[in-house]
Write a structure and sequence with these properties.
This protein has 412 residues and is mainly alpha-helical. The protein has helices at 2-6, 12-15, 20-43, 86-98, 102-108, 130-140, 150-176, 184-206, 214-218, 223-235, 242-256, 267-290, 298-317, 327-332, 363-366.
């Protein structure tokens, strides 16, 4: 990021000194860097990010690569909507909007709010800042996409996942700035956005059209959406949307964890399992009172099997230790301060980083569970060189794969 800044890439005044092709390549590079920097900040709970309203680099042009030539004196005219640069353009459009929203700056850099652009276009104060963005993205880009085209499919569902993710962040921003008790309708709205986030992720993880881009999808594990749903279900285990919620989570879990080996050795997976068990046990208790039968979802059963196996393995290794013989032992043996072993990832094995995602310090999330709180985890002390220790590999954390197609992210 510092090298890019010294090169003047974020500033249009510097880019204006370059020829058309060079300037456009620099814009693509900057947006690729700044969005990656933003995601790394989320993973490490580091709020300082370059996705801020302090620079004026424009988003990439929505043109094909063959429209850009070295001898050009003027930028090419944008004629079509579905070009080779579509994915990069839509990501840039989303990022450019978000970096100027008040709810995003509330979390990342409140001091920059006075210099942010007005992204609401005069809409009513207090309304969602993202309504205009959703309409813009759908009308300007997604409507003209062919869902059978891999690049277009990736663009459609990545954009919608991005919007759902920040809708949830916006909701928690309003909770932060309001002393009023949340209503049932507000809770329903939050869980709706969480549903959307998981459903988009499941589509991306399971479609054969995204297999060339799966490395990028894996870096965006939707943990905040899981927290939102599970904590809501713990409070309201028999709401009308409960059955749908468990189905959506089960589908996403199966898509994300297609090879469960080594999962039981991941301490972050243990805390995820504890959240699931707490929510499901609340539902079981409610059904027992009503004397109604209840069948656990497949992923709850899977987690229970893993928990039981982990306890058996531990008891076999330490036969004289009083650890327990059921899932409680699996959970109670999990430390709350994970330090440098918060999560692991192995791109090739099919399961992804389990991270707090966007703004893990949000009070709406952190205070939800007195026993196992996201706020108790210190995301900022990550030892990046040891992240693969949980999967038995000594090589560095492969956020960028050593090989594979990069077509979806044309800023390569």
């Amino acid at each position: 990021m510092r090298i890019a800044e010294r090169m003047g890439i974020p500033n249009e005044s510097d880019l204006s000194k370059c020829n058309v092709l060079e300037a456009e390549m620099r814009r693509r590079l900057w947006w690729s860097l700044v969005l990656f920097d933003s995601r790394i900040g989320e993973l490490a709970d580091y709020k300082t990010t370059k996705l801020a309203p302090t620079w004026d680099c424009r988003i990439p042009l929505n043109v094909n690569d063959y429209d850009l030539r070295l001898e050009m004196k003027e930028p090419p005219e944008v004629l079509g909507k579905s070009t080779e640069a579509l994915f990069a353009v839509v990501r840039g459009e989303l990022g450019d909007f978000i970096r100027n929203t008040m709810f995003y700056l509330d979390f990342t850099a409140p001091v920059l709010k006075p210099i942010a652009k007005d992204v609401q276009d005069g809409s009513i104060s207090g309304a969602s800042e993202l309504v205009a963005l959703e309409k813009l993205i759908e009308d300007k880009y997604l409507k003209s996409c062919d869902p059978e085209n891999p690049l277009h499919f990736m663009t459609i569902w990545t954009a919608r996942a991005f919007l759902a993710k920040y809708r949830l962040a916006e909701y928690h921003s309003k909770c932060l700035n309001s002393s009023m008790h949340q209503t049932e309708a507000q809770r329903d709205t939050a869980i709706y956005h969480a549903f959307n986030r998981l459903e988009c992720d499941t589509k991306l993880m399971t479609s054969p059209l995204t297999q060339g881009f799966i490395w990028l999808v894996q870096v965006e594990f939707p943990f905040p959406a899981y927290i939102q749903i599970l904590q809501d279900l713990r409070r309201r285990p028999v709401i009308g949307q409960a059955e749908k919620a468990w189905e959506i989570m089960s589908d996403n879990y199966e898509a994300r964890f297609i090879t469960p080996q080594h999962i039981d050795n991941n301490p972050f997976h243990k805390i995820f399992a504890k959240l699931v068990f707490q929510a499901w046990e609340a539902r079981e208790a409610a059904f027992r009172q009503q004397r109604e039968p209840l069948t656990p979802p497949k992923f709850v059963s899977s987690l229970r099997r893993l928990a039981a196996q982990s306890v058996q393995d531990t008891n076999a290794e330490h036969p004289h230790d009083d650890i327990g013989s059921d899932a409680d032992g699996f959970l109670m043996s999990t430390p709350m301060d994970f330090g440098s072993h918060i999560y692991g990832i192995e791109m090739q094995s099919g399961y992804a980083a389990m991270d707090p995602g966007v703004y893990s310090r949000m009070p709406g999330l952190a205070a939800l569970d007195p026993d196992v709180s996201v706020d108790q985890l210190d995301w900022s002390v990550m030892n990046w060189s040891s992240l693969n220790g949980l999967t038995g590999h000594a090589e560095p954390y492969p956020l960028i794969p050593k090989q594979g197609p990069f077509d979806a992210d044309v800023e390569q």
